[in-house]
Design brief:
4 helices
Length: about 140
């Protein structure tokens, strides 16, 4: 089929502008009275099912809270457990392990470098101290 001849058989999804046009179209004239009645019945069933599911969910959430209270599980305990589990899960990832290893290695290198700088500074101060003591003990020749 050619793109122009497709008409109602287009398979492309609607864009926002198209949705605005669709909402302006009156579909009630395109379907029969029998189909309207079937759709109304289906709509009522779906609304009823959704309402029932909401009631069931609310009852289950209430039951969940009651069980947690009986077990002494508070929101703070739950948050601590979730945080601990998340922290453990993160530490076991390969990305964390690689990053930890790299930063640890970099830290060791930085420590060694700082130690070398400290040693060099100490040596320089020692040399300066020796130089000052030596120049004080030996008067300059005139």
């Amino acid at each position: 089929m050619e793109p122009q001849a497709q008409g109602l058989l287009e398979t492309q999804s609607l864009h926002e502008a198209d949705e605005d046009v669709v909402t302006d179209v009156d579909f009630t004239t395109m379907i029969s009275e029998e189909e309207k009645e079937e759709l109304k019945i289906e709509l009522a069933k779906l609304e009823d099912e959704i309402s029932t599911l909401r009631q069931v969910l609310a009852a289950k959430e209430k039951h969940l809270v009651e069980i947690k209270q009986k077990l002494g599980i508070s929101l703070m305990n739950e948050l601590k457990q979730n945080f601990s589990k998340s922290w453990h899960d993160m530490q076991t990832t390969s990305a964390y392990k690689k990053t930890h290893e790299t930063l640890s290695h970099a830290g060791q290198k930085a420590t060694a470098a700082i130690s070398n700088v400290g040693t060099a500074i100490s040596k320089k101060f020692g040399d300066m101290s020796y130089s000052i003591r030596h120049s004080i003990s030996m008067p300059a020749m005139r």
